[in-house]
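Onboarding guide, step 5: your first structure request.
Type a short instruction followed by the sequence, for example:

Predict the 3D structure of this protein.
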Amino acid sequence: MKKKKALIVTASVLAVLLIAYAVMALIPPTRNFEQENPMMKQELPILIAHGGGNREFPDNTLEAFYNAYSVDPRVMMETDVSITKDGVVILSHDVRLDRKTNVTGLISDWNYSDLISQRVDFGYTNPTNDNDELDGERKHFIGADGLEKYPTDVTYPEGVEPRDKEVFLATTLEELLVAFPESRINVEIKQSGDTGKRALTEILRLLEKYDAFHRVVLASFHEELYNEFKALRASDKVPDTFMFSPAYGGAITFYAMHLLGIDGLFGDKMCVFQLPMEQFGIDLATKEFVAKANSHNLAVHYWTVNDEDDMRHLISIGADGIMTDYPHRLKEVYDGYSK
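The system replies with structure tokens like these:
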């Protein structure tokens, strides 16, 4: 008798769970980004220059972004930022200066004014250890063509002159916003904790100053900053066009919900997923995943894609953006589709 009752209880619980799952699966996709999403593709995925196209010119320099702009004026800029000791947000993939410049140390320990007065050169690709500290002889940047690059090698828009003929000077986020007033820009905050939050505060000030919320999307791999993004989006402190991308946690949550068919419960008000094509052996570059994200008015951008076959695969699945170190190479692939 007891066994029969236990079976009935178990069956009842399973029935309730199945009904609940069925109800959740029927929930229609939410429109997570409520405005028109500028991170979505048009005919082809957005050409996104990773660090400005950091295999063609030095990473995260204004000159690299001018080079990418010469490839396609519609290019989207992807950059990484950190804040200096004197409160200036500069472009840099690393929070240290060792790997990309001719000096060493944490960016947060340097004044921007000193970086400029000393003409610190961001035109290097130095060997570093696991802590991004200099570990060997410094190496000047060499482009994909095997030649050392200098600011004078860039194709600039009419009326624009090199800032310096020999040195790739530190570039501020403000300079990037001013130089490309119409371009979409992805800004990843590299510093964490209170320093990262201080950088976020200054970035928000710049976006308001230049009325750039509608074209700049913020990103960070630090969960505390992603939580700050979500809190800002839920408040009245930023406009409705405020855009951000999730850290790993948010992306994993959506992907798991997608597989379970309960993505209708995903409520984060972000606007774009930025993903590798594969992670932990899981294929993330599928037509089904892109379509599911798009049904939520969420874009999907893939990084960092340098192989032409991979580029063509992402085009075939409807990816919204392709981030590459070689903007010329991706543009050639796109040109093949437009002929």
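Each response can be followed by summary notes, for example: The first helix runs from residue 2 to 26.
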